[in-house]
Specification:
This protein has 266 residues and is mostly helical. Helices cover 47% and strands 8% of the residues. The chain has seven helices and six strands, in the order ααααααββαββββ. The strands form three sheets. It has a two-stranded antiparallel ribbon with strand order 1-4. The protein has a two-stranded antiparallel sheet with strand order 2-3. The chain is elongated.
Length: 266
């Protein structure tokens, strides 16, 4: 296969631009929603990359190989670029994400499906001649584009629910709390028995089972940020252990340096 020099150079520039943008670019700020949006962006970016590459290679007068071979070639090139970006971003301290590779593949496949539905060969004959098959392919493309959008939309709704619940910092029983909780060597039980929670059972309670470890517990990630109208944080803890033991509460600000002196410890 031999592409015109101008088309080949343009494709190379586009692929390089995507490679460097995905490998080393990052949205401003740092919170769960921005991270999820950046992850979901893989679908859109690689979908557009695939569509652009197909457009360049399938333009009238530039058809070098058969349509299906073009789809395969472009899909493989885009997927290779996505895999390469994952390994390149380890240079910035990020880890290889196989979920991001799957998102890349979803965007690539969706773009190929959409393009094939409307693609035509000589004398205007459609590449996919069956109307039923075109409908199935179009539906598959829509599913591949819509399903990856569910996590950021769901998380945005959880942020809204968290805002409505304020001044409650976290409701361990609420569905919206799940993205903002992280356990470390512990288990959370939203249906504890009376022996576990004792006198607090007349209210909604969550059992926290601390496993044998150095620092078992759980974290509340990204609590609602503006507490200026409040002076106290209150909660009730009941222990069913026969002897007293020490618990610690830590509060980090947004610019926590991970030093002991740079946080609230009690």
């Amino acid at each position: 296969m031999k592409l015109p020099v101008s088309t080949g150079n343009l494709l190379l520039l586009v692929f390089l631009a995507v490679f460097f943008a995905v490998s080393f670019g990052q949205l401003p700020g740092h919170n769960l929603l921005l991270i999820e949006l950046q992850n979901t962006g893989h679908v859109l970016i690689f979908g557009l990359l695939t569509f652009m590459a197909l457009r360049l290679m399938r333009s009238p007068g530039r058809e070098i190989i058969s349509p299906y071979s073009t789809y395969l070639f472009v899909g493989a090139a885009c997927l290779f670029t996505g895999i390469a970006t994952e390994f390149a971003q380890t240079l910035t301290g990020r880890e290889v994400s196989y979920m991001d590779i799957l998102r890349d593949l979803a965007g690539i496949t969706a773009a190929i499906c959409l393009y094939s539905v409307f693609d035509r060969i000589n004398k205007g004959v459609r590449v996919v001649r069956s109307a039923v098959l075109r409908g199935c392919i179009f539906t598959l493309a829509c599913v591949l584009l819509v399903v990856p959008c569910y996590p950021p939309v769901s998380l945005a709704l959880d942020y809204h629910a968290r805002k409505l619940a304020f001044p409650v910092i976290i409701d361990l029983q609420a569905a919206w709390a799940k993205p903002f909780l992280e356990t470390q060597d512990s288990l959370l039980d939203n249906h504890p028995d009376a022996e576990t929670c004792g006198p607090v059972m007349d209210h909604a309670a969550t059992g926290v089972h601390l496993l044998p470890a150095r620092y078992p517990g759980f974290y509340i990630k990204e609590p609602y940020p503006d507490w200026r109208s409040y002076r106290y944080l209150s909660f009730t803890i009941f222990s069913n252990r026969p002897a007293p033991f020490q618990l610690s509460i830590r509060i980090h600000d947004r610019r926590h340096s991970h030093a002991y002196a740079d946080r609230f410890n009690r």
